[in-house]
Amino acid sequence: MKTTGWIKLFLVAGVLFLFLILPEVILAQKNTYRNGFMVGGWAGYGQINLNTSTISNSSHGTFALGFCGGYAIYSKVVMGMELNGWTSKTSNLEDPAEGESISNVSIFLNYFPVENLPLFMAGGGGKLSYTNNSPDVTGRDKGWSWFVGSGYEIPVIKRFVIVPQIRYSRGNFTDGNYKVYELAVGLKWYSGK
To answer: Which of the listed CATH numbers 1.10.760.10, 1.10.10.10, 2.40.160.20, 3.40.50.2000 matches domain 3-190?
Structure first.
C-alpha cells in the first residue's frame, strides 16, 4: 500500500474515533458556550501532494499549524479568519537555500448541524503564499486556496474546548498546485455571554 493509502486509512480511523468512541456524556452536552468571540489554534500532521514546474507529484508527510479568530453569530454558526500552513522542506540556518512552505490566509465558516452535538462542518477559502528558498526555483508565488473539513468540540473547562479535526485543502499558484489531507488537534476559547 502506498504512503498516501496509509494516510487516508489513518484519517478515516480518526473520523470513526470521533463518531464511535467518544463518550455519550460529550455527545449530549447541554451547556454550549459557543457564543461571542472565538480564538484558537491547532497543530497536526498533513499528507501533502505538491506539483511545481520542477517537482511533479511530490507526496510526503508534513507538519501542520494554524491559528484562527472569529465570532459565533449564534450557537450553530461561527465565522472568522484563519492563518495556517504546512512545511514541505524545513529551513536550515546553515544553508539558506533550504526551506519550502505553503501558508494561507482564509475566511472560514463552521456550521454545527445538530443542536447539543458539538460536531461541525467547516469550509472556507482565501489567498495562499508558496515559498521556496532553492536558487533554481521562484522564491515566492501567490494564488488561491480552499478547504473543507469536519471536527468536534470537546469541552474542557467553561469556555475552552479541545478540537480534533480532519481537513482537505487545495490550492493553485502560478507555478503549480497542492492538495493536503490533514489530521490535527486544537484548542479554542469562546468569550461567552
So the answer is: 2.40.160.20
Q: Where are the domains of the chain?
A: 3-190
- Quote the pTM value: 0.77
Joined together, the cell numbers standing for residue 133 give: 528558498
Strand partners, 185: 43, 164
pLDDT in tens, 96-128: 445 677 889 999 999 999 877 889 999 999 999
| Residues 106, 124 contacting (CB under 8 angstroms) | yes
pLDDT tens for 16-27 read: 565 555 554 444
Grid cell locating 89: 522542506
**Length of the chain (residues):** 193
**What's the one-letter identity of residue 32?**
T
Give the 3-state DSSP-derived string for 64-115, with helices as H, strands as E and coil as C.
EEEEEEEEEEECCEEEEEEEEEEEEECCECCECCCCEEEEEEEEEEEECCCC
Among candidate residues 80, 44, 42, 79, the one with its CA nearest the CA of residue 62 = 44
**Contact by Cβ (8 Å): 139, 174:** no
